[in-house]
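Tokens as discussed.
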């Protein structure tokens, strides 16, 4: 039986706002309010910022995956954690029942990041918070004809990424020379999207043209099997770099308000009350 062939389901070019320093520029790769289409993903932001933009703040009920495109990201949490991530590094955070942290540009850097919000199923929203740094050199890189695939999470191109997400996902960065063709393989029941970081390509057998700062969701078989592969054909029409994510939809009610993602309005109100009453602990400062 032929593997399911993925096509571009929807695509759009990211529009940016310039709020002014310290938050120099911001765009929505996955805009808020489309949780059903993006499930299990909630939103993804493309940000340029200096220190003072994302100081001490809380989260509950979901996970974040922060990819550093350029600059240095300083992470501080109120459990005593501290780290500095460089370009190509990724931080995974499970907010679970409650996390309080800061994500700052290091020193005087102007940093460029992608932050993806990944939902937690209801049964895991009360899980313990934790953080995992995935360094560039620890994510395996696979040579393909005309390029490379760097795997941060999931089983891709014969290797396994080091990210240990509570909700299993795949995350890979693909770099292709002009004219290169590559077929990316994903479980057929994974909802997936991609974001073009540089260049231009044709995606799927239909050859949908995507260029820098274009995002696209892909067709998939929601009633398919995790064990069965699906294929996305890619052809680089210029020197191209993209990042692609996939995961199994949760199909649970999503209520997102500010820094919290829960299943009901009552749970959101409780999260705000818990934060105001100090149940998230002290501020995240060095």
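Sequence:
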């Amino acid at each position: 039986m032929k593997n399911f062939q993925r096509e571009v389901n929807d695509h759009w070019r990211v529009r940016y706002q310039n709020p002014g320093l310290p938050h120099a520029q911001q765009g929505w790769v996955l805009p808020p309010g489309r949780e059903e289409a993006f499930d299990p993903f909630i939103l993804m932001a493309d940000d340029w910022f200096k220190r003072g933009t994302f100081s001490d703040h809380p989260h509950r009920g979901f996970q974040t995956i922060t990819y550093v495109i350029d600059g240095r990201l300083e992470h501080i949490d109120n459990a005593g954690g501290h780290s500095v991530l460089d370009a190509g590094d990724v931080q995974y955070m499970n907010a679970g029942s409650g996390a309080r942290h800061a994500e700052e540009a290091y020193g005087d850097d102007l940093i460029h990041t992608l932050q993806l919000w990944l939902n937690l199923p209801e049964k895991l929203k009360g899980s313990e918070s934790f953080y995992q740094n995935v360094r560039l050199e620890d994510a395996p890189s696979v040579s393909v004809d005309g390029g490379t695939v760097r795997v941060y999470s999931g089983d891709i191109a014969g290797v396994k990424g080091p990210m240990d997400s509570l909700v299993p996902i795949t995350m890979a960065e693909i770099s292709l020379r002009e004219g290169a063709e590559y077929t990316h393989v994903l479980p057929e029941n994974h909802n997936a999207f991609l974001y073009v970081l540089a260049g231009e390509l044709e995606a799927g057998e239909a050859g949908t043209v995507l260029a820098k700062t274009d995002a696209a969701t892909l067709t998939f078989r929601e009633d398919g099997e995790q064990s069965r592969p699906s294929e996305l054909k890619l052809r680089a029409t210029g020197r191209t770099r993209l990042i692609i994510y996939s995961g199994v939809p949760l199909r649970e009610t999503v209520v997102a308000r500010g820094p919290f993602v829960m299943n009901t309005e009552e749970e959101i109100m409780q999260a705000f009350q818990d934060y105001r009453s100090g149940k998230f602990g002290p501020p995240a400062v060095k």
